[in-house]
């Protein structure tokens, strides 16, 4: 079935590109595509204006593609930063793994960095790309996460986190993030930060 706007949830469709009058709003990669096996596309979710397509190669989940009706939104000046920050801006930080940042829910196993702590490290690093440019009444909030936690980090180790600005749409800043321990990957994905203007403050 070709019409992604009419196909039932779970139905396989022939294409994963926007139809006329729609655009790709977001792509979330779930892993490396090893190109073995047939690629299939199914309708995962849909509202009146948004449809999410799920790409699989065999049993392997490859990506989710979100389509939205209408023209792609472009960034609008917001005046919340003292200087423009564009794609490619980056920040790298080191985070020590403390006992408070770990989870021990696996019986008999050594405590390891929890996923919420990893996400917090990634969001804080992304925010640090923007913080040096904040106006006096500006802050940012984490508004979206798409993270894979792929390896352990233990108490006493340091997690190196890199955030690279990938896309800007108005107040919303999307970052590619990666975390490693001694060069070994422990997590990757994307997070979004949205700028807000704090009430009661003036520039």
UniProtKB/TrEMBL annotation:
It comes from the Bacteria. Gene3D superfamilies: Hotdog Thioesterase (3.10.129.10). Residues 97-196 form the Fluoroacetyl-CoA-specific thioesterase-like domain. This is Fluoroacetyl-CoA-specific thioesterase-like domain-containing protein. InterPro entries: FlK, FlK-like_dom, HotDog_dom_sf. It comes from Dactylosporangium roseum.
């Amino acid at each position: 079935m070709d019409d992604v706007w009419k196909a039932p949830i779970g139905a396989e469709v022939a294409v994963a590109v926007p139809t006329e009058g729609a655009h790709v709003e977001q792509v979330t990669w779930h892993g490396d595509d090893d190109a073995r096996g047939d690629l299939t596309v199914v309708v995962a979710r849909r509202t009146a204006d948004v449809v999410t397509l799920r790409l699989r190669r065999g049993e392997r989940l490859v990506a989710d593609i979100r389509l939205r009706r209408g023209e792609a939104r472009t960034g609008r000046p917001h005046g919340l930063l003292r200087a423009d920050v564009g794609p490619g801006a980056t920040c790298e930080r080191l985070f020590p793994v403390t006992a408070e940042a770990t989870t021990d829910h696996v019986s008999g196993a050594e405590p390891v960095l929890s996923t919420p702590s990893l996400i917090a490290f990634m969001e804080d690093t992304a925010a640090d790309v923007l913080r040096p440019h904040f106006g006096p009444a500006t802050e940012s909030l984490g508004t979206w996460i798409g993270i894979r936690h792929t390896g352990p980090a233990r108490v006493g180790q340091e997690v190196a986190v890199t955030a690279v600005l990938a896309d800007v749409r108005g107040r919303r800043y999307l970052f590619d993030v990666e975390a490693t321990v001694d060069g070994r990957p422990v997590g990757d994905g994307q997070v979004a930060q949205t700028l807000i203007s704090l009430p009661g403050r003036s520039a």
